[in-house]
Structures are given as structure tokens and as C-alpha cells.
């Protein structure tokens, strides 16, 4: 009798551990990912990514090594981003989220937060792809503000030229400096 009870308890223990391992909570990983973005805290992010990660924004598709993607996130952190999860759900192993993002760059160029639909795709319980679809992107506002900034910097601070394409932490600091100089030009 004791052997049967022990065998039953061991079986229940193994089955419950096996189920927990198989049922990784992708929504929780996604929530932690957005929370880390919001806090600009990348210390644990590497655990959630595969060796490479593909980021898709409209027609733009870029594959990053884990290290290169973390460098891109450091650029993003310069602008003090705030991410707000409006909706999040898992559908057939894919996490879909509606995200509101605001930062100093977006505030200047877009004049209001970005609303995005984001899709996180997993393989072997690691994020392999982040697809970002912009909802109601104000292209005319973005272009007007971007062109005004670039023209003014070109004439008044040519030493900062090229900042718009430099997606490193240093490039982000130059971008922020360009925005500050432009806003305080008078």
C-alpha cells in the first residue's frame, strides 16, 4: 500500500512538473518584455530572445543578433520611453499586444504617442520575431518635424549631421541633443 501511494505521488509530481515546463507563459514573458522596455532595464532580456531576432515594421525587416538588438534597445532608452500595454493575448502560441508608446523623440516628431499592434513570435519558448504595425501613424506631422529638425541642424550644428541614422546609444544622445538645440533655438 505504501509503495502504491508513493508511486502515485511521484507520478503526480512528475506529470505536474512536465506540464509546467511545456506550458511556458508567453503572455507573461511578453509582459515582462514590455515592462523591461518601459523601465529601460535590459539585464534579463537576453534570456527571452533566441540567438537572433527579426524585427518587422511595415515593409522594413531587420534581423539582429541578440547583442545587436540589445544595443538598439539602448538607443531607444535614451529617449526615456514609456510603454503601456492596452491589450495582450496569446493566440495559437503567438502573443498579440496593443501598445501605446511615448518618448521624447516621438513627442517631438509625432506630437502624440504611437499606438501599435505588436506580434511576438516564439520558437522553443524564446522570442524570435517582433512585428510592429503602426495604428494611425501621422506621417505628415512626422515628416514636417523631421525635415525641419534636419534642415536646422544642417545649417546651425553640422557636427551633429547623421544622428538620425545612428541607432546606437551615442547616436541617440546626439538625436536628443539635436532636438533640445532645435527646441531652444530662440
UniProtKB/TrEMBL annotation:
Gene3D superfamilies: 3.10.450.50. This is Nuclear transport factor 2 family protein. The lineage of its organism: Bacteria, Pseudomonadati, Bacteroidota, Flavobacteriia, Flavobacteriales.
